[in-house]
């Protein structure tokens, strides 16, 4: 970052009066991106971030403290960008407060201040933008940001469309403010940057990021200046990528096809090819990972299944089938290792579904490589099996059929087969075709898996994903629980 727009980091609530913090205590739990149930949770100021030359923008990094939440360096930290402006008189609440981002007004020792959510305020957008792309423009003269708008409906981050920017060759940009901040290089920065540098165009082109230096594990809060470090920062606040114009969310697109009972096979075939290319690009850009260790891998699958069975009584009839499937897979994987073969792991997307892909005239683009925001970065960036991404997309196609209310009973199966075929073709023979079943065998380059073991592994990963979905729907959308429950039955009966 240039000296013109350094990022300054101070300990605690250095620039935030207590009155502002109390205002946030009431406002935060109502936000869609707030990551935990609010009961019993308090907000502990950890770091305060300001931008050089931008007086009104203050970013609060708050640790969430409460029952069941980690502490210390493992604390869950949320990012709250604020725009604080002096106010002669407290502003009356109006119906337009959501659009304006108004949180409220407070009276402090220095006077009355109006507090806005920086996620929806142009002043904060300018501050992040100029920190990510030093020299692009000044906050007071950013004509390129005219027309910027927040994307509504997001649940874990705040994204802002920037229609035109000189640094993006006129194509515009997408600014993502990471509402949950994790220690360590953020995967949604590191992976797009690596793929862009490697020349893979299946990801929106990485342009820059806003990061902190000296906020890493073992560092006391506020010990780092955060400005101008040439090394990879220890935490990221925002990422800027090229805008994909006239793009359609992949899940919305698939649901629209399903609602019309229109064949999604061609789009699924193309998406399968892009996912295979992504895995190849990730392997080349970030290198291979360690070999799969069957005992540990199966232990995780069994633990997740046991937790699902304990949480959802409706899963009881599936327990025996899941247990048998996992036993068969364990035996096969042990045999692979016993003969001295290696099943390599690698960097993957980790949370791949149709909503993580955009369709435009340029084809499919894959985005959102952050994984589950509440998991530690070390877990989210750990090498894994590419088939986990494949399983995630198969499940997403099934959801599209259900949510889109396809009346053709074969709509999802045909889309899944087409996706797998596209994946196989793009792998140039590296992925083997298994049975005609929608979760037929597939494996990646360099793997020692035979077709039968690969098919069994994909079935197990699909069940693992479906069990996760059952628990989620049981807790949040009981009316949808039948979708993943039916999937578990289908896979077990195949």
Automatic annotation (TrEMBL):
Question: What GO molecular function annotation could you give as one example from this UniProt entry?
Answer: kinase activity
* Origin species: Promicromonospora sukumoe
GO terms for biological process? glycogen biosynthetic process
Keyword Kinase listed: yes
What is said about its interaction partners and assembly? Monomer.
Name assigned to this protein: Maltokinase
From the UniProt record, give the pathway where this protein acts: Glycan biosynthesis; glycogen biosynthesis
Annotated InterPro entries? Aminoglycoside_PTrfase, Kinase-like_dom_sf, Mak_N_cap
């Amino acid at each position: 970052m240039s000296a013109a727009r350094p990022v300054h980091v101070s300990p605690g609530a250095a620039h935030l009066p207590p009155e502002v913090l109390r205002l946030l205590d009431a406002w935060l739990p109502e936000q869609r991106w707030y990551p935990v149930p609010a009961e019993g949770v308090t907000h502990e100021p950890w770091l305060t971030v300001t931008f050089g030359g931008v007086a009104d923008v203050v970013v609060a990094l708050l640790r969430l403290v409460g029952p069941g939440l980690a502490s210390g360096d493992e604390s869950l930290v949320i990012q709250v960008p604020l725009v604080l402006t002096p106010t002669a008189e407290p502003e009356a609440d109006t119906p337009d407060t959501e659009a304006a981002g108004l949180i409220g007004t407070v009276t402090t020792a220095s006077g009355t201040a109006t507090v806005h959510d920086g996620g929806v305020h142009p002043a904060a957008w300018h501050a992040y933008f100029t920190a990510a792309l030093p020299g692009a423009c000044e906050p007071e003269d950013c004509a390129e940001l005219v027309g910027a708008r927040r994307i509504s409906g997001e649940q874990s981050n705040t994204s802002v469309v920037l229609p035109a920017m000189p640094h993006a060759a006129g194509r515009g940009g997408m600014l993502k403010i990471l509402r949950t901040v994790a220690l360590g290089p953020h995967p949604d920065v590191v992976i797009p940057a690596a793929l862009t540098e490697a020349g893979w165009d299946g990801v929106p082109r990485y342009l820059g990021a806003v990061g902190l230096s000296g906020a890493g594990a073992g560092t006391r809060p506020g010990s780092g200046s955060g400005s101008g470090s040439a090394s990879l920062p220890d935490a990221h606040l925002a990422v800027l990528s090229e805008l994909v114009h006239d793009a359609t969310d992949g899940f919305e697109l698939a649901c629209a096809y399903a609602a019309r009972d229109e064949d999604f096979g061609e789009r699924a075939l193309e998406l399968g090819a892009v996912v295979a290319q992504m895995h190849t690009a990730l392997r080349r850009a970030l290198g291979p990972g360690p070999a799969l260790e069957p005992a540990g891998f199966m232990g995780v699958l069994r633990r997740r299944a046991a937790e699902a069975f304990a949480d959802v009584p409706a899963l009881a009839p599936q327990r025996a089938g899941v247990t048998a499937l996992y036993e068969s897979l364990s035996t096969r994987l042990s045999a692979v290792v016993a003969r001295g073969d290696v099943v390599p792991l690698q960097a993957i997307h980790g949370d791949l579904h149709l909503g993580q892909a955009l369709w435009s005239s340029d084809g499919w683009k894959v985005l959102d490589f952050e994984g589950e925001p509440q998991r530690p970065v070390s877990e989210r960036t750990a090498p894994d099996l590419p088939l986990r991404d494949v399983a995630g997309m198969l499940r997403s196609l099934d959801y599209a059929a259900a949510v889109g209310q396809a009346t053709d009973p074969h709509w999802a199966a045909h889309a899944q087969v087409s996706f797998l075929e596209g994946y196989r073709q793009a792998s140039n023979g590296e992925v083997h075709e298994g049975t005609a079943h929608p979760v037929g065998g597939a494996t990646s380059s360099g793997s020692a898996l035979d077709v039968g073991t690969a098919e069994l592994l994909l079935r197990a990963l699909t069940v693992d994903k479906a069990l996760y979905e059952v628990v989620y729907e049981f807790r949040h959308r009981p009316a949808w629980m039948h979708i993943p429950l039916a999937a578990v039955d289908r896979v077990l009966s195949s």
